[in-house]
Design a protein that fits this description.
By secondary structure, this protein is an alpha/beta fold. It has 8 helices and 6 strands; from the N terminus they run E-H-E-H-E-H-E-H-H-E-H-E-H-H. The chain has a single domain, classed as Rossmann fold.
């Protein structure tokens, strides 16, 4: 069974960079699929106001429609309480059919992994794939990462004896440059500027139709 890629985040909103990361990881890592896992309320970012759950979820479905291998999960966003990554990953690992989950994240996210619930156990039990972003190209591998991450850095691709999904390692994956972020989408939307180059066309229409992100400066 091929590993399951798990791409978590608030997706507020989903943008072309998210889709590009998932597409690239799907092909490069030989994943069975990539699961987009929108969070309900990010526990490490308390107090931040997000767009309503149903809006973030609908934009994901619009962005991933007709994209084989990319799927949306409501596992966390449908939960009334706070969800933690380690609990979600363990649930996915024990699900049926059994497929080892691999956590996909950005360079900055893994640098902050020390603030996550049971981060030592999380890094020990699961493989992480850190995707570089355009502004980080050329930086030394692991620059700015805590020791708990750098000591688990492993060469890519993994050796056959320990295939992807075995757990306990951090891999670095280069992705094609695409300078976009959710905050940039929200800022442009608040300023009334075009976001057509930042998000899939159907997502752009959805944001305009529902007048999302009118006051990014106050968020």
């Amino acid at each position: 069974m091929n590993p399951l890629g798990v791409l978590g985040g608030s997706f507020d909103p989903v943008h072309r960079g998210h889709v590009a990361i998932a597409d690239h990881a799907l092909r490069r890592l030989g994943l069975g699929c990539v699961l987009f896992l929108p969070c309900a309320d990010p526990p490490h970012k308390p107090g931040r106001a997000l767009a309503a759950r149903h809006h973030r979820l609908e934009m994901l479905f619009l962005a991933l429609e007709a994209r084989p291998g990319l799927r949306v999960s409501t596992f966390e966003i449908g939960n009334r309480g706070v969800c933690y990554t380690i609990d979600t990953m363990r649930s996915l690992r024990s699900g049926a059919p059994s497929s080892p989950p691999v956590f996909l994240c950005g360079f900055d996210a893994i640098a902050d992994v020390g603030s996550w619930r049971e981060h030592e156990a999380l890094l020990a039990e699961f493989d992480f794939v850190a995707c570089t972003r355009p502004d980080e190209r050329g930086e030394p591998v692991g620059s700015g990462w805590p020791d708990i991450v750098t000591r688990r850095l492993a060469p890519f691709p993994p050796v056959a004896e320990t295939p992807l999904g075995a757990g306990g390692r951090v891999f670095r994956l280069e992705i094609p440059p695409l300078p976009v972020s959710s905050s940039l989408v929200r800022t442009r939307s608040a300023e009334g500027r075009s976001i057509d180059d930042l998000v899939p066309a159907r997502v752009a229409r959805y944001i305009r139709r529902h007048r999302l992100y009118p006051e990014e400066a106050a968020r």
